[in-house]
């Protein structure tokens, strides 16, 4: 008999905790799958004082079938099926979002099905049943009254839907044939699109950067034992945090305060009480952590205070640490990369990539990430295909799934069929043939059809990059990022450790020139041992040369190591993020101190020392004529320069791709810089990752920037392009278009290349 809909959840003793306890009791009864599902539906209806509760499940053909109901015509069960695009149930399934309606028949998506008997119903609450990003079905609550469900009722329905997703996926509610259909839905092929960042194809197995807890039971067999497990896990978590703080007594005040706040969260009695309440309702410790974690995320996202919202990250991290403590060895085993791993992560720092087993890592997909992020730079250096801007794949994938990643097109195939795998194996073979064709160009000069020589250099930052020098035929290293050595280790590298690295790099270059950029630290490039204070705008904060000048204890040992490693050879030092000419004067004075120090020690010096300035800030760009006389060469840091030119954070997913470096305004800006550098007779090199784009490289050449430093994988394609182009013709074509009001010249450059037979 339907329950009087005038009674509200808020006036009853019912609650999500009571409902979960009732669901656990139902699941404990030995009975048939349909009977158990019907009893669950009835329990939900009774707890939520609903006239109707229905569960629709998704079939492998995407039809939504009524599997159980309390309050509708029982004859409609397994006979009523709706298209994915049909009705309010289909709307919830398609959007994967709950819908709360006070008068459902007035909604444009409402579809009347006479066989179910819902003529007198008005209020409608539909919640998707989701697991690993897949909608498995829809939980529907309905009432005769015209009213909107309360926030507490919606939250209760979402909690129930989360539990239903787990037990439906486990097959405990379904007959074997139906369970197999659900399994096919969960493991169907998914074709997704991300942002292509590092070209290449990876065919492998999914690994998660933040793997979930190992598969676990939803409901507890023994509540007392689960409470004890939870308390043991909390004790272990708190102990690890205490030890972490004790081991870092020398941290700066701000850093210590951050850790202390983190510890307060770990010891928060309210958090622990909510976890224990969830276990008392009959959940396992792991399920309790996941449920409370979900509740915290929702509350934090709704908070107006940005500081409070940011604390969600602390609570998320604590929850993950607690799941690790509960999972023990089973969790740790999942952290090992499988063979041919494709790593899925929300975000990754450059050091995190370097810590991974590169023999097993074949590709990376990031939920965030841009083509100019430092993670992307490291991935390019390692030749690892990388995609960004695809958060949905993380929700849809499970550890061990087969996956194909195409870093050239941005395509992702999750759980592909044999035909797709075969197609990509063929594509991988073709890609390998292209690489062989590029290798054949290794010893040929990068000279245009009309005789202009373009110098192609490599970007590097690790010893493992050096073999690329011979393999590609590059003329040298145009940018060696020394900061990577600072980011990898657990502590600041000593001067001797730095000297050893730089000497090995110079030896491996076999007299080819190398430009060593002094450590460009700060912003997003900070190791765990560094005492970095919080900055509202770190990209424009204490970083690069300004940090090095303020902290001679960081810069002088590095200069000492470079001078010692280069004894008897040419040494080129590049200063990052130069803002004013005065900074160069200060830096040169520090270099002179180290030269004098070595002379006093009667130790050999480099054959020559050349100093360069990296132009990455508009203030420096506008005053190149003042900077050029103080240095021997100039480098353009295109990534930062474009970031500051467009006032668009290069790490922001919302802004990545919004402003094209092929914008006529930016190209005109670059031409001004190149003209000033050439007037001062100082060589200028473009070191931004943008130069790896053949169309951008074409534009730079036409702007009279004829030295490019790019990733190793770009040398072959760029050399092929250079040898197929008439530069004088391109210059004449580009010059009038620099005054264009268009947002980008990309399409026009592509058309030019096509019409003139340029090899892209």
Automatic annotation (TrEMBL):
Q: What is its EC number?
A: 2.7.3.9
Please state every residue range assigned to the domain named GAF: 32-178
Top class in the EC scheme: transferase
- According to the record, the signal peptide region is none
- Catalyzed reaction equations: L-histidyl-[protein] + phosphoenolpyruvate = N(pros)-phospho-L-histidyl-[protein] + pyruvate
Q: Which cellular compartments is it found in?
A: Cytoplasm
One function term, GO molecular function aspect: phosphoenolpyruvate-protein phosphotransferase activity
Q: Which InterPro entries does UniProt cross-reference here?
A: GAF, GAF-like_dom_sf, PEP-util_enz_mobile_dom, PEP-utilizing_PTS_enzyme, PEP_util_C, Phosphohistidine_dom_sf, PTS_EI-like, PTS_EIN
Return the similarity comment. Belongs to the PEP-utilizing enzyme family.
Q: What is this protein called?
A: phosphoenolpyruvate--protein phosphotransferase
Q: What high-level taxonomic lineage is stated for the organism?
A: Bacteria, Pseudomonadati, Pseudomonadota, Alphaproteobacteria, Parvularculales
């Amino acid at each position: 008999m339907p329950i009087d809909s005038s009674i509200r959840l808020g006036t009853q003793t019912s609650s999500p905790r009571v409902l979960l306890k009732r669901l656990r009791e139902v699941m404990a009864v030995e009975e048939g799958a349909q009977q158990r599902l019907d009893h669950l539906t009835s329990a939900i209806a009774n707890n939520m004082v609903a006239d109707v509760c229905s569960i629709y499940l998704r079939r492998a053909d995407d039809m939504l079938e009524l599997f159980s109901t309390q309050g509708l015509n029982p004859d409609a069960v397994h006979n009523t099926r709706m298209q994915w695009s049909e009705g309010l149930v289909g709307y919830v399934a398609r959007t994967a979002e709950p819908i709360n309606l006070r008068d459902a028949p007035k909604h444009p998506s409402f579809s009347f099905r006479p066989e179910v008997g819902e003529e007198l119903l008005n209020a409608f609450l539909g919640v998707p049943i989701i697991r690993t990003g897949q909608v498995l079905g829809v939980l529907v609550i309905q009432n005769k009254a015209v009213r909107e469900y309360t926030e507490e009722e919606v939250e209760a329905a979402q909690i129930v839907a989360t539990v239903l997703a787990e037990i439906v996926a486990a097959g405990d509610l379904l007959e074997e044939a139906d369970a197999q259909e659900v399994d096919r839905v969960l493991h169907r092929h998914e074709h997704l699109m991300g942002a292509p960042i590092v070209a290449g194809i990876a065919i492998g197995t999914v690994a998660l950067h933040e793997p979930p807890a190992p598969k676990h039971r939803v409901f507890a067999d023994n509540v007392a034992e689960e409470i004890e497990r939870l308390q043991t896990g909390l004790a272990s978590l708190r102990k690890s945090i205490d030890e972490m703080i004790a081991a870092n007594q020398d941290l700066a005040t701000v850093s210590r305060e951050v850790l202390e706040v983190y510890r307060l969260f770990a010891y928060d009695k309210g958090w622990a009480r909510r976890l224990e309440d969830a276990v008392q309702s009959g959940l396992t410790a792991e399920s309790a952590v996941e449920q409370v974690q979900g509740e915290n995320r929702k509350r934090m996202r709704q908070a107006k205070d940005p500081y409070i919202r940011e604390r969600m990250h602390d609570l998320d991290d604590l929850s993950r640490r607690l799941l690790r403590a509960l999972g023990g060895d089973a969790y740790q085993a999942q952290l090992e990369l499988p063979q041919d791993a494709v790593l899925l992560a929300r975000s990754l720092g450059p050091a995190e990539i370097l810590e991974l087993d590169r023999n097993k890592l074949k590709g990376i997909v990031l939920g965030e990430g841009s083509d100019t992020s430092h993670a992307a730079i490291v991935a390019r250096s390692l030749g690892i295909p990388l995609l960004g801007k695809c958060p949905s794949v993380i929700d849809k994938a499970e550890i061990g799934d087969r996956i194909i990643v195409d870093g050239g097109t941005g395509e992702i195939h999750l759980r592909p069929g044999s035909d797709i795998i075969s197609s990509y194996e063929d594509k991988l073979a073709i890609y390998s043939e292209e690489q062989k064709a590029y290798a054949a160009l290794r010893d040929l000069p990068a000279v245009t059809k009309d005789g202009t020589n373009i110098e192609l250099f490599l970007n590097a930052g690790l010893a493992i990059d050096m073999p690329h020098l011979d393999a590609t035929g590059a003329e040298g290293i145009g940018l060696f990022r020394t900061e990577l050595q600072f980011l990898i280790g657990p502590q600041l590298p000593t001067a001797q450790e730095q000297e050893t690295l730089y000497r090995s790099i110079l030896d491996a270059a076999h007299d080819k020139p190398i430009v060593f950029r002094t450590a460009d630290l700060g912003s997003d490039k900070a190791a765990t041992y560094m005492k970095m204070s919080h900055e509202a705008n770190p990209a424009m904060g204490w970083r690069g040369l300004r940090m090095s000048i303020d902290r001679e204890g960081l810069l002088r040992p590095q200069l000492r190591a470079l001078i010692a490693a280069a004894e008897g050879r040419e040494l080129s030092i590049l200063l990052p993020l130069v803002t004013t000419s005065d900074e160069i004067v200060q830096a040169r004075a520090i270099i002179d101190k180290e030269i004098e120090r070595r002379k006093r020690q009667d130790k050999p010096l480099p054959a020559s020392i050349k100093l360069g300035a990296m132009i990455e800030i508009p203030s420096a760009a506008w005053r190149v004529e003042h900077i050029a006389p103080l240095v021997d060469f100039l480098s353009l840091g295109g990534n930062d320069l474009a970031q500051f030119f467009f006032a668009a954070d290069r790490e922001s997913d919302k802004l990545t791709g919004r402003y094209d470096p092929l914008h006529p305004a930016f190209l005109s800006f670059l031409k001004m810089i190149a003209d000033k550098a050439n007037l001062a007779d100082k060589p200028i090199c473009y070191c931004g990752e943008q130069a790896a784009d053949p169309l951008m490289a074409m534009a730079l050449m036409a702007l009279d920037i004829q030295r490019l430093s790019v990733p190793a994988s770009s040398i072959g394609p760029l050399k092929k392009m250079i040898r197929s182009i008439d530069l004088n013709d391109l210059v004449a074509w580009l010059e009038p278009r620099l005054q264009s009001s268009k947002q980008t010249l990309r399409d026009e450059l592509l058309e030019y290349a096509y019409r003139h037979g340029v090899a892209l």
